[in-house]
């Protein structure tokens, strides 16, 4: 899907040049997702994961086939190029809610941590490697060829879902079968509020997501201040490799045995890596820091997923993940736009104050104290912004560690409510540390 997003975006920009059309295209690409995600989760909880995945994948295939026809025949113009992006976003809400909430139905409780590791590889590929691979493919193939290849991959996905046996989740007897999807979403929100610590954890993930949105702007400005496009590709590759290595480690060893402290430790590593990346205009330093930051991010998200799978009722998981997707996407958009606004207003070389040009942090750093922290040269204003982001994340991690007892005690205070905890099972399947213990016979899920 990331290939398609990149190809469609490029097609809009190249073939339908007006800037306003690009803005509308990306608004359609991102704005519907946080609005529709909770309702997509409610659909998954009500009608089942298999149906949701089939609808999303078949719809994606039809959307891509229509897009190929438009590209080949050169008909439809900009309208369908923008519409295809919007349709893709709507279908992705169903797909993501189903994928994130299906783990407890397919995986034994003791392997939740390992199952959530590969989920991070999908995230890394979509966010980091997808545009990079698409960029490389576009050097040897046209956008329409990439979309046609995507059609074949979606056919494989449809076959896998169609032949898979995904159990249905039984709704509690007290649930009204004819209530609206909105009421379903409200029920999930109330559930999050009542289970102390879960809402705080969602807020922490939203903060990290907003940080990532800001980093999309600040990291690019920092790298391009002292390097070229090849340097930016090198840093992006290092970030992707960080998530890949962390994913492999979690598949082998699982997520941290103490999920909440492990999440906070990974958050602190993430913050320190951001601050280190902004310390000097050095490509190796930024690549290593990006590797550590994205590896830590993988641990944060996988630990979050595992806690939700353990502590949230199976019939609510789709809606809870839908609400999570809304919060993290809105935070990401705010971080992205906030970084752009701050960059334009404070770091642009054309900005003036009291009739004088403001060059600090853009062309050079005149303050020796500031230069001691972020170095000197073009783009260091973005580096300062990135360092402040790292300090802010570290401060919030410290706040959660010392001032949020409900969050820290969440693993002990909230009972596990997985399918395994509802049925009589062998003792080994009910072990509370099962999210990280090795499978019998040395096998791993």
TrEMBL record:
It comes from Micromonospora profundi. Pfam families: MFS_1. Keywords: Cell membrane, Membrane, Transmembrane, Transmembrane helix. SUPFAM superfamilies: MFS general substrate transporter. The chain crosses the membrane at residues 20-40, 52-73, 120-138, 144-162, 198-219, 231-252, 259-277, 283-308, 329-351, 382-402. It is a multi-pass membrane protein. GO terms for molecular function: transmembrane transporter activity. The keyword Cell membrane applies. This is MFS transporter. One of its GO terms (cellular component) is plasma membrane. It is found in: Cell membrane. PANTHER family: INTEGRAL MEMBRANE EFFLUX PROTEIN-RELATED (PTHR23513), MEMBRANE PROTEIN (PTHR23513:SF17).
């Amino acid at each position: 899907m990331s290939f398609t997003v990149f190809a469609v975006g490029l097609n809009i920009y190249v073939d339908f040049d007006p800037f306003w059309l690009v803005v509308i295209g990306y608004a359609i690409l991102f704005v519907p997702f946080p609005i529709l995600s909770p309702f997509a989760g409610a659909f998954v909880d009500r009608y089942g994961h298999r149906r949701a995945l089939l609808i999303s994948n078949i719809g994606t295939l039809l959307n891509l086939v229509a897009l190929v026809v438009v590209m080949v025949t050169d008909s439809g113009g900009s309208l369908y190029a923008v519409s295809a992006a919007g349709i893709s976003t709507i279908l992705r809400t169903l797909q993501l809610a189903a994928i994130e909430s299906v783990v407890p139905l397919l995986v034994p409780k003791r392997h939740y941590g390992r199952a959530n590791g590969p989920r991070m590889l999908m995230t890394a590929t979509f966010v980091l490697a997808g545009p990079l691979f698409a960029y490389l493919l576009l050097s040897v193939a046209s956008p329409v060829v990439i979309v046609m290849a995507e059609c074949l991959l979606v056919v494989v996905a449809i076959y896998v879902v169609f032949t898979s046996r995904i159990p249905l989740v039984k709704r509690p007897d007290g649930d009204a079968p004819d209530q609206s999807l909105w009421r379903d979403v409200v029920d999930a929100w109330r559930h999050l509020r009542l289970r102390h610590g879960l809402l705080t954890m969602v807020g922490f993930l939203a903060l990290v997501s907003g940080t990532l949105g800001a980093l999309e702007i600040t990291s690019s400005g920092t790298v391009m201040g002292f390097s070229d496009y090849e340097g930016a590709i090198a840093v992006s590759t290092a970030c992707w490799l960080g998530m890949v290595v962390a994913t492999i480690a979690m598949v082998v060893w699982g997520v941290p045995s103490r999920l909440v402290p492990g999440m906070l430790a990974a958050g602190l590593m993430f913050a320190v890596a951001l601050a280190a990346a902004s310390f000097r205009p050095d490509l190796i330093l930024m690549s290593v820091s990006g590797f550590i930051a994205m590896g830590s991010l993988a641990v944060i998200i996988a630990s979050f997923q595992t806690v939700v799978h353990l502590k949230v009722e199976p019939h609510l998981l789709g809606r809870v993940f839908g609400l999570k997707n809304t919060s993290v996407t809105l935070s990401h958009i705010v971080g992205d736009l906030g970084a752009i606004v701050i960059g334009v207003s404070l770091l642009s070389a054309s900005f003036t104050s009291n009739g004088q040009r403001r060059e600090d942090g853009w062309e050079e750093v005149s303050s020796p104290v500031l230069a001691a922290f972020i170095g000197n040269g073009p783009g260091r204003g973005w580096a300062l912004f990135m360092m402040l982001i790292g300090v802010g994340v570290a401060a919030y991690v410290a706040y959660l560690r010392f001032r949020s007892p409900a969050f820290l005690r969440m693993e002990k205070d909230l009972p596990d409510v997985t399918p395994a905890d509802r049925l009589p099972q062998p003792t080994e399947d009910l072990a509370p540390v099962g999210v990280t213990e090795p499978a019998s016979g040395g096998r791993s899920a």
